[in-house]
Amino acid sequence: MTNEETSFIINELGEDRENYFNAVAPPIIQTSNFSFKKVEELHKAFKDEYSTFLYSRGLNPTVSILTKKLAALDNAEDCLAFNSGAAAIFSAVMGNVKSGDHIISVRKPYSWAQHLFNKILPRYGISTSYVDGRDVKNFEEAITPATRIIYLETPNSWTFDLQDLTAVSAIAKQHGILTICDNSYCTPLYQRPIEYGIDLTLQSATKYIGGHSDVVAGVLSGKRNMIEKIFNNEFNTAGNGISPFNAWLLLRGLRTLPARLERITSTTNTVINFLQDHPAVEQILFPFHSSFTQLDLAKKQMSGACGLFSLVLNINTYEQAVTFAESLRHILMAVSWGGHESLVIPGCAAIDPQDFDKNNIDHRMVRLYIGLEDADYLISDLGQALGKIT
Question: Using an 8 Å Cβ cutoff, are 346 and 366 in contact?
Fold first, then answer.
């Protein structure tokens, strides 16, 4: 997709300004329902809610402007916007399985995807196998006659393991298996899984699409018939649609998405160049770093990598990891990513202090998100914190 095409999608597609007083910014149609003048019109809406505005739990004009843009960015036929990324995952999976089915997932997917696979689906007789997605043979070997879904997340958001989308989608199609890919790390600007044969692509719009840490949302894109099926069942039944106001916040975020990604990418590279030479840093985990084991695949599938990466600290104790994280003055300790502020999560936060093992790199790992601050501002903060554990 060219920059010109991206600019048109973000700034013009779906925006019929003559219908709302030629306002430059799309309106927030903050209504719960819509009226009809003819019984026949209402009758048609009851029969096909996917094609008209009836009730904002389903379709809403502000939300529709957003989904037209997001579908086009994904190079998909259609799209649904959810009130969280977890809701998008839930509907995508639940809309395509039944009792007795089997799912293949990459190991250590997003926590709420894993919760769905481990806690919710087994209640209904649906099993999940986890594989190391870095080797495509692992998917093929895990397929059973009951396999209905292959669930991908490339890159993931801690170690940034990749899956070969073209190869996995080819195997899935041979066996009639649906593929779903979480594309939250890249956004559609840096990777479009549908172009590699993936059936459904989803992302947490809370991250880069929103861009301001003030909205929680999810996106699911794919072929129209699949999206319509999910809309008429899981989406409307669970009431997982996004509100008009939150859709408007995402439209606002989209306006600056290319500029934000460009700035964040540049700053991230500068920060990584500083960190990779620091004695307190043992390893950098970043898809476009020269030491990354899947660098060639990353460059094949992704047009860029943005602000999220991990580093392994050269430390021996739990207390050193805590000291580093708590010494940061400007980088906030918080989950998520994609906003204007830089963030940190120490891996040790997931364990009890007595369980710390210096030989387990997960315990010495720190995930950093680089936001929109000045590079020197962030380097100064990281430098003084690292200096306390050197």
Answer: yes
Whole-angstrom distance, CA of residue 326 vs CA of residue 348 = 12
Tens digit of each residue's pLDDT (9 = 90 or more) over 81-93: 999 999 999 999 9
How far is 192 from 154, CA to CA, in rounded Å?
Answer: 11
Distance of alpha carbon 278 from alpha carbon 289, whole angstroms: 16
Return d(Cα 80, Cα 75) in angstroms, integer: 14
How far apart are the C-alpha atoms of 182 and 117, rounded to whole Å?
15
Dihedral sign computed on CA atoms, order 138, 139, 144, 150: positive
- In terms of pTM, does the model score above 0.85? yes
> If we measure between CA atoms, which residue out of 381, 262, 370 comes closest to residue 326?
381
Q: Write the single-letter amino acid at 346.
A: P
Extract the tokens encoding 148.
């209905």
Residue 361: name the closest of 307, 289, 283, 293 by CA: 283
Nearest to 112 by CA among 92, 87, 91, 82: 87
Check if the beta carbon of residue 203 is closer than 8 Å to that of residue 85.
Answer: yes
Please say if the pLDDT value at position 379 is more than 90: yes
In the chain, DSSP assigns E strands to 78-82, 102-106, 127-131, 147-153, 178-182, 200-204, 218-222, 281-285, 308-313, 332-333, 343-346, 365-369
Distance CA 183, CA 208 (A): 11
**Per residue in 107-126, pLDDT tens?**
999 999 999 999 999 999 99
- Residues 199 and 28: their CA atoms lie apart, in Å, by 31
Tracing tokens 């947490």 back to the chain, one arrives at 204
- 186/86 Cα distance (integer angstroms): 17
- Rounded Cα gap, residues 221 and 370, in angstroms: 27
Q: Work out the angle at residue 365's Cα, subtended by the Cα atoms of residues 360 and 366, and round it to the nearest 5 degrees.
A: 165
**Dist. CA 261–CA 82, nearest whole Å:** 23
Asked whether 287 and 155 are in contact (CB, 8 A), the reply is yes
How many other CB atoms sit within 10 Å of the CB of residue 189?
Answer: 20
Say how far residue 327 (Cα) sits from the centre of its chain: 29
